[in-house]
């Protein structure tokens, strides 16, 4: 292993949290790009007890997924998210950046201020600026901690509708509504085709 790769490894090991490539570059004071060293280290640690992973553009060491259950400590479980918080988090993850009004429109009910506060305290949601419309509402987005907690490299790794259906996570009412919407679209298309003839 080269001195440069060892330096990058030391920076990551000593870091308090995940680091971006630019932060690693700055802390290591290397003139060449650190990306080849990160890739080499990720390959070097692959299949070991700890792995070097990149989540949301940030690099860090983590326990290998197949060993993590062994190393879990007994600890007080943090309080579980309410259904409203889970729904709000999902809307933000899939539609970010999104305003409170947009979240409420998608959910069909008002979002309590405490719901967004809980998600921000967990470190999974952050204010992402203001929308350039009248009233300039605050918009929200997910964080790197959200990606890291759920083991996602990027938002593109979020499960799609087929994945959710296969996992049994869609309510029967959701499936019924989707079926009704599909049927309505088919009927509309048939009416339009008849009108063209």
Automatic annotation (TrEMBL):
The keyword Cell division applies. SUPFAM superfamilies: Winged helix' DNA-binding domain. GO terms for biological process: cell division; chromosome separation. Pfam families: SMC_ScpB. Keywords: Cell cycle, Cell division, Chromosome partition, Cytoplasm. NCBIfam families: SMC-Scp complex subunit ScpB. PANTHER family: SEGREGATION AND CONDENSATION PROTEIN B (PTHR34298:SF2). This is SMC-Scp complex subunit ScpB. It comes from Sphingobium nicotianae. The lineage of its organism: Bacteria, Pseudomonadati, Pseudomonadota, Alphaproteobacteria, Sphingomonadales.
């Amino acid at each position: 292993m080269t001195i440069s790769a060892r330096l990058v490894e030391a920076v990551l090991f000593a870091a308090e949290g995940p680091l971006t490539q630019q932060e690693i570059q700055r802390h290591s004071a290397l003139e060449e790009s650190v990306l080849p060293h990160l890739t080499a280290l990720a390959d070097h640690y692959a299949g070991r007890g700890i792995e070097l992973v990149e989540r949301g553009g940030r690099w860090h060491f983590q326990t290998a997924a197949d060993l993590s259950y062994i190393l879990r400590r007994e600890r007080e479980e943090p309080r579980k998210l309410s259904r409203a918080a889970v729904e709000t988090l999902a809307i933000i993850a899939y539609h970010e950046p999104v305003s409170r009004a947009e979240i409420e429109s998608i959910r069909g009910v008002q979002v309590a201020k405490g719901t967004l506060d809980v998600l921000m305290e967990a470190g999974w949601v952050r204010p992402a600026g203001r929308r350039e419309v009248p009233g300039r509402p605050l918009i929200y987005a997910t964080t790197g901690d959200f990606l890291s907690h759920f083991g996602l490299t990027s938002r593109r790794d979020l499960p799609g509708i087929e994945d959710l259906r296969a996992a049994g996570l869609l309510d029967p009412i959701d499936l019924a509504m989707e079926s009704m919407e599909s049927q309505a679209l088919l009927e509309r298309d048939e009416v339009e085709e008849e009108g063209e003839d």
